[in-house]
Amino acid sequence: MMWNKRELGRKIEEWLHEDVGFGDVTTMSTIPETEQGIGILYAKETGIVAGLPIAQQVFETVDPDLVFTAKVEEGASVEVGDQIAEVSGSVRSILSGERLALNLLQRLSAIATKTGEYTAAVAGTKARVVDTRKTTPGLRFLEKYAVRVGRGYNHRFALYDAVMIKDNHIKGAGGIAQAVAAARAAIPHTMTIEVEAESLGQVQEALDAGADIIMLDNMSNEQMMEAVQLIDGRALVEASGGVNLDTIGAIARTGVDIISVGALTHSVKAFDISLDLNTRKR
User: Fold this and answer.
1) What is the phi/psi pair of residue 204, to 5°?
2) What is the DSSP string of 38-70?
3) Around 58, how many Cα atoms within 13 Å sit in the side-chain half-sphere?
């Protein structure tokens, strides 16, 4: 897990307040308070499931007496029609938690599924597929978790946990050497410095400055191969820009160590999951 359960609980309380507010008027006015039932969650497409522990916490926050049972393991591959989980107890409670639980499951499963597609495309190479900070505000910790479920890796979590010197930092500092030197003097020895390079000349500058990671920004495959040879293991090499499922295989074969993909989190389509209240407990 990449989160504190108490921290997630605070988020869930906020999200439930947004959705349920002072009460689910439709459910309260149509469903008897004593009605019990079972909600079945099932997949309506093929992919990787992520977010089952989060969905469970949503339902248990709505009503501690609800019983959530996962039917597959977190990170499992599912087909259309497969049962993912069931939740049993008060029908009112099930219906009040349904939308938030599904929204989170659908979002995280979409990210895990997309990540799985990208990691499969680099199989047989040393390249790692990593995410970016292009995440939904407030959901980054869960979205980056979903990338891990999809067998990808995380880049830095936020601006505070690693130095990444990009074009505007280089301009503001007066050059790559100046930017790296200033960062090195200011940060702990345990923190890495990454430099974005748009040309082979900048790759050499980053090497000379002692960068730990060099990001090859929007370079052609031929340029990336040259850069990998130039760097020759003296820094980790990251490829960024122009990465999609059609291009990532060739990019991986240039010899880069890391490929960052914003599409893992910024533009996925929700994974289709439904909840059917189709069995009653008597």
Assistant:
1) -65, -40
2) EEEEEESS-EE---HHHHHHHHHHH-TT-EEEE
3) 24
**Whether 196 is catalytic:** yes
Report residue 196 as tokens: 């974005």
Reply yes or no on whether 73 is catalytic: no
pLDDT at 279 over 60: no
Catalytic residue of the set 11, 71, 99, 253: 99
Chain centroid offset of residue 169 CA = 26
User: Worst-scoring range by mean pLDDT, 83-87, 193-197, 277-281?
Assistant: 277-281
Report how far residue 26's alpha carbon sits from residue 157's, in angstroms, rounded to the nearest whole number: 40
> pTM value?
0.94
Helix (H) or strand (E) holding 169: helix 167-173
Active site residue 238: no
Residues pairing with 197 in the sheet: 216
Sequence-ordered list of residues with C-beta below 8 angstroms from that of 193, at least 6 positions apart, any chain: 162, 163, 165, 180, 183, 184, 187, 210, 211, 212, 213
